[in-house]
Amino acid sequence: MVDYGIKDKVALVTGAAGNGLGRADVLAMAECGCKIAVIDVCPSDETIKMATDKGAQAKGYVCDISKMEEVSATVQKIKEELGPVQILVNNASILTTVGMFLSIPVEKWNRDVQVNLIGTANVSRAVWPHMVEQKWGRIVMMASIAGTMGGLGQTSYSANKASVIGLGKSLALEG
To answer: Helix (H, G, I), strand (E, B), or coil: what is residue 49?
Structure first.
């Protein structure tokens, strides 16, 4: 195993309840020896079990990242139970609104923005002060080539991922 210098760091991965990139991120963090928090709108029991089977300390939290109050309370609970978040993997995202631009109901478009962009900003905002206080932190933004090239029938997703890329670049300049 390669030593990435993150052993015993507290890592928060969003959107890792399912069988996708979030889970893969959790398992990679487990192999690096991180303490892991997973937040998702669904219970992440299976992902947590897989991480603990690798010897990691891991806990799951049900949280809707589009709601700042929930995010703040969850990040505080993580701090109390595992320690302050030092690594954030902003993985949570939805791709449920597929269709040509004018055929997408405004309510669905707005929900995509709430989760994919505002949710990502909410979690980043909640952990940022802890990283500043520790003078150490890493934020990983999971985006998509759709954010740089667009995608037919993916106006909402592409616009959100372009925004996430811009948010990540701006946070890097501020940090």
So the answer is: helix
Task: Indicate which residues carry an active-site annotation.
Answer: 157
DSSP 103: G
Could you tell me the two tokens for 125?
A: 């905002």
Instruction: Tell me if residue 173 falls in helix, strand or coil.
Output: helix
Residue type (1 letter), 154: Q
**pLDDT digit string, tens, across residues 133-168:** 999 999 999 999 999 999 999 999 999 999 999 999
Point out which residues pair with 141 in neighbouring strands: 90
- What token pair was written down for 12? 């928060």
Looking at the DSSP bridge assignments, the partners of residue 11 are 36, 87
Q: Which residues neighbour 165 within 8 Å (Cβ) at sequence distance 6 or greater?
A: 141, 143, 147, 148
Give me the residue label for tokens 């595992």. 82
Domain edges within the chain? 10-174
Q: pTM value?
A: 0.95
Q: Which CATH class is domain 10-174?
A: alpha beta
